[in-house]
Amino acid sequence: MDSQAAGRAKGGGDLSGVEHRGTVDRWRAVAPGRVNLIGEHTDYNGLPVLPIAIDRAVRVEFRVTDDPEVRLRSPVARFAPLTFQLKRPIEAAEQGDWSNYVRAAARGLMEHGVELRRGIEGTVSGDVPIASGLSSSSALVVASALALLKANGVGVGSGGASISRLDLAALLARAERFVGLEGGGMDQAACLHGVEGHALRIEFEPLRVTPVAVPDGWRWVVASSLVRAEKSAGAREAYNARARECREAVAGVGGGYRDLVAEPDLDGVVRRARGVLSPVLFRRFRHVVSEGRRVGLAEEAMRNGDMGRFGKLMVQSHESLRDDYEVSTADLDEMVGIALKAGAAGARLTGAGFGGCVVTLCEARTVAPVMDALAARFYAPRLEGSPGRDVMFAVKAGGGAGVG
Ligand code: NG1
């Protein structure tokens, strides 16, 4: 493991498992999921985001094979064993097939010029809930890439490494579009750059990651709406439609999102947009520029330890995603309402929306009341028994991905 990864992995929950596995040829790649705190649907518009890598991860335990083939199994029954050759061209399996994330990693590395002469054989496991806006997909892409790089003797990180974490994040973001989603680069960057106890301000074009310390006493609770947002399948079209609308909107207004968000008079920018855009494009535009502005304000609130302000910005973000971007659901809205009423400082949907999870910001003493309220008012009518650890859980800002 490179020294950066060692630093990241230290004490980072499951990442402490980033270690040599005993026998000479057994290794483990560990890649965390992420929760986006604020900055939703901004990454593919070139605007910053503020996520944390979480203390839940996807793990690929593997041995290196002499032949250029990937053979992976999952303990989850609906994920059939996958096998494919590391030979160009790597074709996509059918839409929705989990092997596409592993294929995307291999393809991205090969397109970057990495020679993959040796393959991997092993198992994939993890505790990042799937299709919940917590980026289990990118964690799988990153873990697969780290495994393939390890198998082929390519070091990642600083100090004589062959590929930097930033370059790897950028190439894997491009590679993940192989599954057909016109995604931004937030997830792969957060996964590779997580720092324990820190949020990550991620900027794009060029990619840059700045850790921001999470103040003591801030707690994050993640709760699932029980609806999966499968972006390799159903939610894909809706997501891609938003990306298209954003491009059309900014072309209609003129200039680029980054310059527009930096204009001192943002209300003036929004008024200008209202005059030239159709109602739908105007709403998409207003979400993107207002959310872009909120990320900077939220970072400032975090640096100042101002939980109230950060929480308010989260709520504004949710309202904008609900009303202007139209990616929320009645259930996500209800959960946000319940959490706020129970004393959370802030709550919002996280990830792309269309289902998935909410993230709430709490003081230590409000974590239990918020979880109790969600259990009683949201989950009790929908689930038999109390919500499990895959449905509602507290998360910590954890370390980044590593292999060893
Ligand atoms: P989730 O919902 O976690 O898959 C997706 C995109 C992000 C970002 C968010 C919305 C991918 C792999 N993920 O995240 O880049 O655009 O939606 O903010 O494309």
How is this structure best described in words?
This protein is an alpha+beta fold. The protein has two domains: 3-213 and 399-403, Ribosomal Protein S5, domain 2 (2-Layer Sandwich), CATH 3.30.230.10; 218-395, Alpha-Beta Plaits (2-Layer Sandwich), CATH 3.30.70.890. It contains twelve helices and twelve strands. It has helices at residues 3-9, 99-111, 136-151, 165-176, 186-193, 235-253, 257-262, 266-276, 279-303, 307-323, 330-341, 364-379; strands at residues 26-38, 50-65, 69-73, 82-85, 119-126, 198-203, 208-213, 218-224, 346-350, 357-363, 392-395, 402-403. It has a six-stranded mixed β-sheet. A four-stranded antiparallel β-sheet has the order 9-10-8-11. β3 and β4 form a beta hairpin. α2 (99-111) crosses α3 (136-151) and α8 (266-276) packs antiparallel against α9 (279-303). The N and C termini lie close together (5 Å). The chain binds 2-acetamido-2-deoxy-1-O-phosphono-alpha-D-galactopyranose. 2-acetamido-2-deoxy-1-O-phosphono-alpha-D-galactopyranose binds at residues 36, 40-41, 43-44, 133, 135, 137-138, 176, 181, 183-184, 186-187, 231, 351-352.
